[in-house]
Amino acid sequence: MKKNLESVLALYPTPAVVVGTSVNEKTNWLLVGHLGIMGHDRIMVSLHKAHFSNQGIKATGKLSVNIINEAMLPLADYVGCVSGGKTDKSEVFAWHWGDAGAPVIDDSPLVMECEVTDNYETESFDNFICKITNTYAEETILNEQGKIDYGKLKPVLFEMPTYSYLQTGNIIAKCTSLGKEYKKHMK
Question: pLDDT per residue over 133-147, tens digit each?
């Protein structure tokens, strides 16, 4: 028997990322734990409407999604604790402009530079639908085939119910391998 928890968002953990944008011609960073995949070339970044960064994202139509690792966590946590409306966060990270014009964190091992194509607004959130224009990866996190190896990347995960950061775990199986094995036994 399962207990009904009513309307509880239970899709955690999610990657913890730092979103970069420009607000009034000044770079701003924000730690974000609400984002999702909308296809192979689109993501959604969901930000409470009160966030200062939303102004810049709406004005420029550009943002970066900087995956964080454990080494980056203290600075990432800091940019999630203070408002860009009250604190200048432009120099918290060493950064440069990406090819599409969004600020990119130099130390982030994996960055997606995005163009906002839509904003699905709910009562209290801006849900920015973003087309990925560029993805930058440190060579140290790539496998022999040039693909991202998340075991090497070790992104930090965010879990809302306990408001905690988690490390990624071990690979337990390759996708479709268990289903193929099950199918063999069904014959």
Answer: 999 999 999 999 999
